[in-house]
Design a protein that fits this description.
mainly alpha; 60% helix; 2 domains; 4% strand; four-stranded antiparallel β-sheet
């Protein structure tokens, strides 16, 4: 074969737990106990004392990869990788999704390598952490710049506007209203396609909570690289269990938009975005089946995923939607006029499309360096372990999306354009478009992938990530603007 494959050695459950055993042994003299999060300690001993515990540490391999293909194969897929033992350890859902078919290894442990140095060859192959710190500092500079701009608007310009508006009401010969106060009778007018927007916001809330909890657990060490597949398993389980918040948010916002087709709303929340992701994933799985790759999901696992979706996530979405529709609609601080106000002619910079395109630049600038390492871990088979950096970038991304969207929303309101709902969602959500462009650049400049199947798989999975990222960032921008608009119109006096 022309392709070069490398076997990625992974520790078994016993080997992964050896660190905890050693630490327990050392700390036992101090009457203290310690073990790695998520890994149960296992006792080992010499062969002559076998009755006290295991005496052999088994080694396992996960899959065969190639830099020219995204198709992983099982360790025994080729004649030169023969294994006598049929004993295979259990695999979690995340390992199955990534094609991590665990097999026993014919090679023995290198006892010259100390346990404390077992990850050194991986860490030394990773880029230096100074690049990570540069990414954080770059993101912080952007956040400080945006925070300064928003603070200037909130504390100076906006404060003066509110004081001037409130003062005009006490003057008999008050001048005509102007600026963002002029659209107070239309600011909470229901948006067009409110059904679709509410569904997107429900799914985005589900993704946001799932991402936050997953990264938080990873920072605590429960989803370490040693526990393969745990990150994906945690994310899938959380997504299934968070159907209730998705249904509640979608139903509550749709009711606030004046919608009455609650059955259509809850059905779209439960099936639209998850259905798009599942359809894309199923097509990719068919390609993997056709290529004989170990990443192809077995039929039983596919049925189990569908069962989790239909039997757990969908009922929870209906429960959340029930409570969302049962609750009273969100009360707005100002009344909405019956006749919509005509929007004046807008300049180039206050038109929808230029504002949306500009709004996604700064959030993407906060994450593009970290995005490079994430894509390397997915497509270039590098180990990603800096979840602390990733969680910090996650927080910075939330702040940046919120501040950039609020800033542009204020400019549009001052131009008497009150259509902020979809614009706020698309402004921060457009970060996903820059992510997609970067993924295309990464494919042609960094990867050596050849073959039609591998190319389709790369862009198919990239579209799934782009959709998830679009819903995630768009939801942040909408709720940030919703809070901002509610806040400023609740403190100004209107007739």
């Amino acid at each position: 074969m022309s392709r070069r494959f490398s076997a990625a050695m992974v520790p078994s459950r016993g080997l992964r737990a050896l660190c905890s055993v050693l630490l327990v042994g050392v700390s036992a003299r101090l009457a203290l106990g310690f073990y790695l999060p998520g890994l149960a300690p296992v006792s080992f001993c010499e062969e002559k004392e076998r009755q006290r515990g295991a005496s052999e540490i088994e080694l396992f391999v996960n899959r065969l990869d190639s830099v020219e293909s995204v198709l992983p194969y099982e360790y025994r897929a080729f004649d030169f990788c023969t294994v006598e033992s049929e004993n295979r350890p259990s695999e979690n859902l995340g390992q199955v999704l990534f094609g991590e078919r665990i097999e026993p290894s014919p090679y023995k442990e290198n006892k010259e390598i100390r346990w404390a140095s077992r990850w050194d060859y991986i860490l030394e192959s990773m880029p230096h952490t100074n690049i990570q710190w540069f990414s954080i500092m770059n993101s912080l500079v952007i956040v400080l710049f945006l925070s300064g701009m928003v603070a200037m608007i909130m504390l100076r310009t906006l404060h003066k506007d509110i004081a001037r508006y409130n003062q005009m009401d006490s003057v008999e010969d008050a001048q005509e209203e102007f600026g963002w106060k002029l659209v107070h009778g239309d600011i909470f007018r229901p948006p067009r396609k409110g059904m679709l927007l509410s569904v997107f916001l429900g799914s985005g809330t589900q993704i946001f909570i799932m991402t936050f909890i997953t990264l938080f657990l990873a920072c605590l060490g429960f989803l370490s690289p040693a526990n393969r597949g745990a990150l994906m398993t945690c994310a899938v389980v959380l997504w299934v269990l968070l159907g209730a918040p998705a249904g509640y948010v979608a139903a509550r916002l749709y009711k606030s938009f004046g919608g009455e087709k609650w059955k259509t709303n809850v059905l779209l929340t439960a099936f639209l975005c998850p259905g798009i992701v599942f359809t894309d994933f199923f097509v990719m799985n068919l390609i993997l089946w056709g290529e004989g790759s170990s990443a192809a999901m077995p039929f039983g696992t596919l049925v189990a995923i569908l069962a989790l979706w239909f039997c757990v996530s969908v009922p929870l979405t209906f429960v959340g939607a029930y409570f969302g529709f049962k609750k009273r609609g969100i009360e707005h601080p100002v009344r909405t006029n019956q006749i919509p106000r005509q929007i004046p002619e807008q300049s180039f910079y206050t038109r929808p499309l230029p504002g949306i395109i500009m709004g996604g630049i700064l959030p993407f600038g906060c994450i593009f360096i970290q995005l490079f390492f994430i894509l390397n871990s997915i497509w270039s088979h590098q180990m990603y372990y800096m979840f602390g950096f990733l969680f910090l970038v996650f927080i910075i991304l939330v702040i940046t999306c919120s501040e950039a969207t609020i800033l542009l929303c204020y400019f549009h309101l001052c131009a008497e354009d009150y259509h902020w709902q979809w614009r706020s969602f698309l402004t921060s959500g457009f970060t996903a478009a820059y992510f997609l462009v970067y993924a295309i650049h990464y494919f042609f400049s960094k990867l050596q992938i050849t073959g039609l199947a591998s190319t389709i798989l790369y862009f198919g999975y990239t579209m799934i990530m782009a959709l998830i990222f679009f819903l995630f960032t768009g939801t942040i921008g909408f709720f940030a603007c919703f809070w901002f608009v509610t806040k400023i119109y609740s403190v100004v006096k209107v007739d």
